[in-house]
Amino acid sequence: MASEYIEHKLALLPDMPGCYLMKDINGKIIYVGKAKNLKNRVRSYFKSSHEGKTARLVSEIADFEYIVVSSDKEAFLLEITLIQKHRPYFNIKLKQGNGGYPYIKITNERDPQIKIVNTLLKDGGFYFGPYPNVYAAEETVNFLQKVYPLRRCNGFQNRPCLYYHMGQCLGACFKVVPEETYAKQIKRIKSFLNGNVSHAKQMLTTRMEKAAAKMEYERAAEIRDLIKYIEITVEKQKIISTDNTPRDIFNYYMDKGWLSIQVFFIRQSRLMKREKRLFPIIDDPEEEMVSFISQFYKQKNQILPKEILVPKSLPTDVISHVVEDVPVRTPQRGQKRDLLEMAGKNAQMVLEEKFRLLELDESKTTGAMKELTDAMGIAPGHKIEAFDHSHIQGADLVSAMVVFVDGQPNKNLYRKYKLKTVDHADEAASTKEVIRRRYTRLLKEHAEMPDLILMDGGVIQMNAVKDVLVNELGLNIPVGGMVKNTHHQTADLLFGDNDTPLQLDPKSQGFYLLQRIQDEVHRFAITYHHKVHTKNSLSSRLDSIAGVGPKTRNKLLRKFGSLRKISNAPIEELRQLGISETVAQTIKFSLSKIDEERKVTNYQDKKLTH
Which of 92, 239, 322, 532 lies 20 to 30 Å from 112, alpha-carbon distance? Predict the structure, then answer.
């Protein structure tokens, strides 16, 4: 029977083609599969009865992930690549060999041929594919040999070969065929294999209809199948190419203060690996992405590719500078652009899945609150208030509080705090101020106190809370500290006089509730800080421009909302706000200079907090 976590992920699967990767309790990939419809295929593992190997596989699945593609053909090719890379225990096919899929080749000879091959060689030939359906590729080649013949014989033999009499050979077996004749045929074949098959399909459809009219149904069925094979063969895909350039592809999606990143690694002409990252952010997603890419290649054993592809919203020149002058490009068309869009689509789906899982997780809250209080050895309660702080290098300090009642977030009770007495990064001082302000107010208003206070942090924050509650306000409210592991994921809860880890069961409802609270308070704090930081940053930068006073600054902020939009606005649009042409020109020049300096100096030094 599937766990609650698996059940929730199953409910969120898309009705799209793709590959799925089954993982065991240690996160190891134990099976890779493909599907025309991910939702139906993956659900079948957990919603049907199985025997033998499949039953054993399902019993070991603790999690799964998936990669969405555009077609069943792409799913097949990606499946082969992933199986060969990860060699999952439960995959008994496609582990060996040189790829398992053929190419159609036009040979580089005086009298060229068209044939099926399994290996790409640098021999000057034209290669098309790969084709996951071997039979469809063979039937397509047979069709091309009949319609656009080249050479089918072994060469000159003083007499016409059988294929020449059948119209499937141009006659190299007994005469000199002009190179121009071959060139015309090759041009037609290349056009056909590149997808221009409408004329051929129309011709075959006519033949099929004539055969059916004569009640030659078997012949009509053969032609129908041939049309299908042609469609399968010329269907475009982007998982495998004939370009051997090692390249990395970065794309992202942002929503509700969270950034989702997908990295595709193209090696040996294939999509060999995918990495994903998900974390809350403070700055603009473009700045975070540039910083992320910079830090990404500083990791140990991370090899630079020959080319990096990014969306057009990112500054390719700056990224190239910080990654040792590797060419960074934004593809405008073709297979590279399609791969970039596919990475963006997968990034969006990962983030949307996270949000929907959080919503579904609300059903787990029955009994979760009691699990937490039992683990802490305190009286059962209903209301939890959790706090977190946020800043950038000690600037724009803010705190935020979220409230969970009976395991459910109550957003009407959330509170935001601009810190007034702290002007630098001091966790203890920040905690004391926000706790003092929150509970002094509740005491004055004779309002209900929470049953539990949770801090997103460790011993320093917990001791600060206890100091204010007990020594200043005379309150006795239990305090816990939510701690994270090295991957910035919820790890445990500290509690007690010695701030001892409770070692909560990570599969328990209590732990799920703790995880949701920590994610929510962190998101809320980060989102609030982003607004404060953006407003202060915009104001300070505009105030530094000669001729821009408070009134002009406020007009610009109300109209455009960001420095980028102000910088991109035409001078005439600035003048419509009552700004003189001289000042408008000064604004444009100053913002372009600030932006250039910021790109060159800040991106490389900035460190991610994920």
Answer: 239
251 lies in the same domain as 351:
yes
Considering the domain architecture, whether residues 282 and 138 belong to the same structural domain is answered as no
pLDDT in tens, 48-99: 777 777 888 888 888 898 988 888 777 877 887 788 778 888 875 434 444 4
- Helices 38-47 and 4-11 cross at an angle (nearest 10°) of 150
Amino acid at the residue 81: T
Burial class (CB in 10 A: 0-12, 13-18, 19+), 555: middle
Task: Say if residues 311 and 340 touch (Cβ distance below 8 Å).
Answer: yes
Q: Is the pLDDT confidence value at 350 over 60?
A: yes
Q: Report helix, strand or coil for 114.
A: strand
> What pLDDT does 98 receive?
43
Which structural domain, as residue segments, surrounds residue 376? 366-519
Domain boundary among 86, 111, 142: 86
User: Residue 358 and residue 580: Cα distance in Å, rounded?
Assistant: 51
| Cβ count near 242 (within 10 Å) | 13
For tokens 């055969």, name the residue.
Answer: 211
Q: Please indicate, yes or no, if residue 276 is contained in any of the structural domains.
A: yes
pLDDT value at 478 more than 90: yes
Closest CA to 352 of 36, 13, 21: 13
Identify whether 286 is part of a domain.
yes
